[in-house]
Design goal:
heterodimer, A: mainly alpha, A middle domain of Talin 1, 14 helices, B: mainly beta, Methylamine Dehydrogenase, Chain H, four-stranded antiparallel beta sheet, 48% strand, disordered N terminus
């Protein structure tokens, strides 16, 4: 039988200063998942859906002339950051719709983009036949910074269409996440969603650490060249990483004010552990998240040594999740399990 | 002699002989006398870091002789004819490595196309290419990546006619009615488990599972044959050639929703050139066959990882021997000998010895031919 809103009496022994950290309700997966959809993904999806039309409008204004590249760039940056916040932990509709592939395929294929531009698509239906590696946010970034589009050009019209696709996806995600927030899964479905959440939290961390930071460094070392990070053309690499980390951290670490009551805010991994009495692991987890946070605050994307050091710190957090935390959360990690190999 | 064929990696006789002549292992570690020192090429995790390297197991205990740090966890390794070791990143993988245990610059290859490596790599039977099992991230289609043997760059792709292709094996001699599948035929285990790039290793929608074994023409990739088990929840994953029974052994992993079905599922199937046949149910084997290799005298060794057991199996899959080996995983066989890795222990031809607990051997290892 599920018992809600009970507080662990054992934690009454905790020193006063630590009380806020230590006490937490005993959350069940439906509690954590409902909070995730209500207090995390739905507002972030709304934020993205609010920004995306502004990108379309800014590009349309630039394309109509006179040139207004700066506002279009600013709108792209805001849209991209809203997207990074939403996708830091990609769950539910983001997976089902394959949204990351659809509007943020990386790395961009400049040769394919060139070929697609030559086709001069005129409508969103035409864009369906354009491969994902040549559209979405990376393509728009390319057309705003690497090869800036001129007003009244075919490339400008292409950028508008690409942005309209982003807007359409943003609207679909907003709708889907609002529906989830209104009717969160229960019982078995909630357990499945909780397992997905933890796996995707770790997947998001690994996307930031390995795909974002370490792999480009390793590749650059092999090539004897400078690393090429995502969002580099716009100079937003650091901001994008910070946006991802902000959400990973928010879902990992309990606020200093303490764990939320059930139904009153995002349930962090730390709070979930504390609520179940895994105090030692929760303390260790919190310390590791804080260590990663310090590394992220000190991160300088232009300095490979700084990126390398940060990636190594984040790797410790990955290792801790894999070796200790996932087990306490009673989650089998698809990202690390031996099964299927 | 058939028994001298490297059963674990299924090299052709000619390739094996060339390899035996070409690979020069340091004499100190290539002692031909049993009971002294065995060499194994493996990948492992230690203190949160991943490595590939050369291990020795002998009277002086288990030791790491040389190593290279890896960026992420590896899975399969293969020995190439020049003595270098090919290492593939674990699924969904994005790097390949050619490492030279005797020294020299490691050769890294980074995968940046819309493909991910599935953890196994194999030098082609003609020596001109390197094959990798891969997944197209757009639609989860299984592929064999054809790669330039020198640069590891992709030169082409073949369909595996399934999802989730895993281990490959080159048929060392002709098999099937009227030699339908000549020596050199490429066998591929399509694990059949649906995955999605956004969710990494997580299994999705297992009701869509479609595992199969396929035989491909090694020159063109043309489909020569495809076989399925009756039970679509048995994922076919690892392959080994038994030169005595002249069968391919296939290690299975059960993906049934029902725990009891998973617990007692067979962990071995065999293919004799005509039919793919699952062995009888294996009570308490817990549904996970980690690796498979040939067993001296015929049949197979199979690591039942979750059951903490090494199973000695007759060619028809009947259990002939059961050895307790915690987290039994990596297997290798050569010239009548076999090695099995587990947690804090290594087994070799019936003998177990302690292994540093901090060194967690991955699913596979390779025993190089002795000089």
């Amino acid at each position: 039988m599920r018992i809600r809103s009970r507080w662990l009496a054992v934690l009454l022994c905790a020193p006063g200063a630590l009380w806020a950290q230590a006490a937490a309700p005993y959350y069940y997966p439906p509690d954590a998942v409902a909070a995730l959809y209500r207090d995390h993904t739905a507002p972030l999806a709304r934020g993205f859906a609010t920004q995306a039309p502004q990108l379309v409008q800014a590009l349309q204004a630039h394309c109509a002339g006179p040139a207004a590249l700066a506002p279009a760039r600013a709108a792209w940056t805001k849209t991209m950051l809203a997207w990074e916040h939403l996708t830091a932990v990609a769950v539910g509709p983001l997976i089902e719709r394959r949204s990351l592939r659809a509007i943020d395929f990386q790395p961009l294929r400049p040769d394919l983009l060139k070929r697609m531009l030559a086709r001069e698509p005129k409508t969103l239906e035409d864009m369906v036949r354009v491969g994902t590696p040549a559209k979405g946010l990376p393509a728009i970034e390319h057309l705003l910074w690497t090869a800036p589009i001129a007003p009244n050009s075919g490339a400008c019209a292409y950028a508008v269409l690409a942005a309209q696709e982003v807007q359409r996806e943003a609207e679909a995600l907003r709708s889907a996440f609002d529906a989830l927030a209104a009717t969160p899964p229960e019982e078995e479905a909630a357990v499945t969603a909780f397992v997905e959440f933890i796996n995707q939290w770790l997947g998001g961390l690994e996307r930031l650490r390995w795909m974002g930071m370490e792999k480009p460094l390793r590749e650059a070392e092999t090539r004897g060249a400078s690393p090429e990070f995502a969002r580099q053309p716009s100079g937003q690499t650091g901001a994008a990483w910070a946006a991802e980390w902000a959400e990973l951290r928010a879902l990992a670490r309990q606020l200093d004010s303490g764990a939320p009551a059930i139904g009153a805010g995002r349930v962090s991994i730390e709070s979930y552990l504390r609520g179940r009495g895994h105090i030692v692991e929760a303390d260790r987890w919190r310390a590791a998240v804080d260590e990663s946070d310090r590394a992220m605050q000190a991160l300088k994307p232009g300095q490979p040594t700084s990126v390398d050091a940060t990636a190594r710190t984040l790797k410790k957090l990955t290792a801790l999740m894999q070796s200790e935390i996932a087990g306490k959360l009673e989650v089998n990690l698809g990202f690390s399990s031996a099964d299927g190999d | 002699m058939q028994t001298e064929i490297d059963a674990r990696h299924g090299l052709t006789r000619r390739a094996l002989l060339a390899l035996l002549g070409a690979v020069a292992w340091p004499p100190a570690y290539a002692d031909a006398t049993r009971g002294k020192t065995d060499e194994l090429l493996a990948s492992w995790a230690e203190a949160g870091r991943y490595h590939a390297g050369r291990l020795s197991v002998g009277a002086e205990g288990a030791q790491v002789r040389s190593r290279i740090e890896l960026p992420t966890r590896a899975h399969g390794l293969a020995l190439d004819a020049d003595g270098s070791v090919l290492v593939a990143a674990r699924r969904p993988g994005d790097w390949l490595l050619r490492w030279r245990p005797e020294g020299g610059e490691p050769q890294w290859h980074w995968v940046n196309d819309d493909r991910r490596l599935n953890g196994h790599v194999l030098p082609s039977s003609d020596g001109h290419s390197v094959w990798t099992t891969e997944t197209d991230q757009a639609d989860a289609r299984g592929l064999i990546g054809l790669r330039n043997a020198r640069t590891l760059e992709k030169t082409g792709e073949w369909a595996t006619h399934g999802m989730d292709p895993h281990e490959m094996l080159v048929l060392p001699e002709a098999l099937g009615p009227r030699g339908r599948f000549p020596a050199g035929t490429l066998l591929v285990a399509n694990g059949g488990i649906p995955t999605q790039s956004e969710t990494g290793r997580s299994h999705r929608d297992l009701s869509r599972m479609d595992p199969s074994l396929v035989a491909l023409d090694p020159a063109s990739g043309a489909l020569l044959g495809q076989w399925r088990l009756h039970d679509a929840r048995l994922s076919v994953r690892h392959l080994a050639w038994d030169p005595v029974s002249r069968r391919v052994g296939i290690a299975l992993q059960a993906e049934h929703d029902d725990e009891a079905a998973r617990r007692d599922a067979p962990l071995l199937a065999t293919w004799d050139g005509s039919a793919l046949t699952a062995s009888p149910p294996m009570a308490g084997a817990l549904g996970y066959g980690g690796d498979v290799c040939a067993r001296a005298g015929g049949g197979f060794w199979l690591s039942a990882t979750h059951a903490n057991a090494l199973l000695g199996l007759a060619p028809d899959g009947a259990i002939a021997e059961r050895v307790t080996l915690p987290s039994a995983g990596a297997l290798a066989a050569q010239a009548g000998h076999a090695w099995a890795g587990g947690a804090a222990a290594v087994w070799s031809d019936g003998q177990q010895q302690a292994w540093p607990a901090a060194l967690q051997i991955d699913n596979h290892w390779v025993s190089p031919p002795r000089g």
